[in-house]
Amino acid sequence: MKERRFQVLHEDDSDPMLSSVNLVDVFMVAMVMMAIALLSNPMLDLQDSDFTVIRNPGTPAMEITVKRGQRLTKFQATGRSSEGNGVEAGTAYQMEDGTMVYVPNSAEVSAQNE
What we know:
This protein is of the alpha+beta class. The chain has helices spanning 17-39, 43-46, 106-113, and strands spanning 51-55, 63-68, 71-76, 90-94, 100-104.
């Protein structure tokens, strides 16, 4: 009876350089995939434009980040109402079509007309 041997490598596969060529191919595919991932990164678009990011809107832990030019400003909510010195400037109304109309106080209008 003839003995059979299981051969992983054929006679023409005995060259050790073939495995290193396959590794180079795999490396090249991985580099191309990484380049595509880096170039399609949406954060690259944010580097040149102004933007505002709001995290946790409407909660006491709300945080607002604003980028204008090269300046990055971060605002954090304190959980309290806003405070400050000021006067009521008028009233804003939202119309049925969604537009907003600002009506200044009468004292403000009369002071501007004088």
